[in-house]
Amino acid sequence: MTSLTNSEKATSTFTSQLLPTFKRQMFVYTFFRRRSHFPSEPWSTPRSTTRTRLEGDIVTLSTSTSTGPCRETLSSGTPLNGRRQGERNFQPPLELIHRLRSHGIKVRGHNLIWSVEKYVQGWVKQLTGDTLRHAVQHHIQDTMNVTRGLLEHWDVNNENIHGHWYEQQLHDPDYNLEVFRIAHNADPTMKLFLNDYGVVSSGQGTTKYLAQAKQVKAANLGLFGIGVQCHFRHEADPDPDAIKQRLDTLAQAGLPIWVTELDVSVHDQDTRADFLERALRAVYGHPAVEGILLWGFWDVRHWRGPNSALVKGDNLDLLPAGRRFLDLVENQWMTDETHVLSQSRDTYTVRGFHGDYELHVIYQGHDLANLTKTFTLGKTDHTINVDVHV
């Protein structure tokens, strides 16, 4: 809720217009898996209108070798997610990160290490004891130093309730805590995340994940949030009640929750739009959820194929799911209000969606740019005073 006050007497009627720049920092999208499908300057191509609308204000760059939008870039610069030992080429991902940031798009990192055995590189599997520990430590420190100040989050040890290769290789059941300690010491300002699946889209690991979150939080190792993947089964209709119950459980950790990898998989396009909306409404409406990431949206490069796409073809034509998504984030979940104030110290109150806003004062049809104010509306009330001299 925001209160806006005109604190000076005006000689004529003026209009105060509250416009959202973004809302609730909620929607975040991945890029494509192959560099050949990433134009050198995508915002200048004919597809830019739809693409920019769908990309939102944050994207995720993946370090993984098997999936993820930057397969040929970030993976070659991070040897624990690279093909061969000793490869340290950060230039391609850094160029991409800087290009994204130059367009006002924030970036989060995924992931520092991955504990599921099939995703651990062959050369890493040959390491043991202190040699393995030193390799992990060097990798994390180097990666975080190179990306310092450029990323919003890091997923630290991906899918650790499902994979325990490092703990087993080192005979150390608490090695996950050591990984967080290394990352936190490398950059104490970085927001570190857990990230796992089967904890919201299904409930098979929810309780176990809560216990892990509480453990890492209690160790005071920089854990900022809980990342929950929401890959709903093929043709599965998301159950809002079950989703809420699982989010309620995870919220007991007292940490922000980010839906890090959301998608549905449905052949019928209208049903896909319905299922996507159902899932989005369920997670969006939970007070502990601070962000939502769509894990792909383009039929050409979606990791689950065309049945999960929001757009299709080289022109990124909107599918029903894409139109439904944009209606939610650009219309239904936006706060855009206009009020006419004519008296000294007029006040009005706005109930708005969380997020970043601009307040514009319009007098005789002209936007008084010197009176424009920007602010972020969160969970607490916010008051804006506007001094008008006309």
Automatic annotation (TrEMBL):
Family statement drawn from the similarity comment of this UniProt entry: Belongs to the glycosyl hydrolase 10 (cellulase F) family.
Organism taxonomic ancestry: Eukaryota, Metazoa, Spiralia, Lophotrochozoa, Mollusca
Organism the protein comes from: Littorina saxatilis
Keyword terms: Carbohydrate metabolism, Glycosidase, Hydrolase, Polysaccharide degradation
Polar residues bias spans: 62-79
SUPFAM superfamilies: (Trans)glycosidases
Active site (UniProt): 261
GO function terms (MF aspect): endo-1,4-beta-xylanase activity
GH10 domain mapped to chain residues: 55-328
Region listing for Disordered, in residue ranges: 62-88
Coiled coil ranges: none
Name this protein carries in UniProt: GH10 domain-containing protein
Biological process according to GO: polysaccharide catabolic process
InterPro entries in the cross-refs: GH, GH10, GH10_AS, GH10_dom
